[in-house]
Amino acid sequence: SPYGSLLSSLLFSLLLVFSRNSFIASKPDPSKPNMLRVGLAFGSTAVLWALLFKQHRTDVHEYKTRNGLE
Amino acid sequence: MGLLPDEAKVLPPPGIVNRNSVWFGLCGWATAMLHNSLNRRPALKAGVHRQALFTTVGWFIGYHLTKYENYKYATLDRDMNEYMRLHPEQFPEKEPKTFAEIVEPFHPIR
Questions:
Q1: What angle do CA A12, A17, A23 make, to 5 degrees?
Q2: Which positions, given as ranges, span the membrane (chain A) (predicted)?
Q3: Which of A49, B51, B69, B109 is the most exposed place for a label (fewest CB within 10 A)?
C-alpha cells in the first residue's frame, strides 16, 4: 500500500528521535551546534529580559499612581 | 501577581539590579559553567547560550523574590507598628542617658 512505507519511515524517524540505542547513538559534536536549541535559548533569554523590564515598568507605574505621585 | 496580593503594589518596586537578582544570576551562571566543566568543555567559552539563559532565569527569579521579600517585611512592620499603637503602655518613652550616667566607676588594678 502507498501509506505503508510512509508509516514505516515515520516510525523510523520517531525511533531516531526518541531512542538512544547503540546502533545509532553518537557523541555530541561541539563543532556542529544544534542551532535550533541555541536559537531557542537566546530567544527565551530575550523574552525573559523583555518580560522583566515590562513588569518593572508596570510596577513603577502602579506604585506612582497608588501613592499619588503622578 | 501570583504570589502577591493587590495591596503589595503600594510598595516601591525593587530596581532591576537588586541583591537577589545579582545573587541568583551569578548562581545561574555558575551552574552553566559547572555544567560545562563536568562535560569536559571549556568553562567560559563553551555554551554561551546556556550561560546567558541560566543567568537570565536567575535574575528573573531574584527580582520576583525581592518583591515578595519586601512585601513580607512590610507586613511584619505594619503588624508591629499596629501592636505598638494599641499597647502604648508597653513602650514608654525613656529619657536618653549619657554614658557618664551608665558607665560604672573605673578602679584600675595594676
A1: 70
A2: 35-53
A3: B109
Burial category of B56 from C-beta neighbours within 10 Å (exposed 0-12, middle 13-18, buried 19 and up):
buried
List the single residue in B with minimal CA-CA distance to A27: B39
What single DSSP character describes residue B92?
P
Sequential pLDDT tens for chain A (70 residues): 677 777 777 777 776 666 667 777 778 788 888 899 999 999 999 999 999 999 999 999 999 999 988 7
Are the C-beta atoms of B10 and A66 separated by less than 8 Å? yes
What whole-number distance in Å separates Cα of residue B60 and Cα of residue A5? 48
Out of A45, A60, A67, whose CB is closest to B10?
A67
pTM as predicted: 0.78
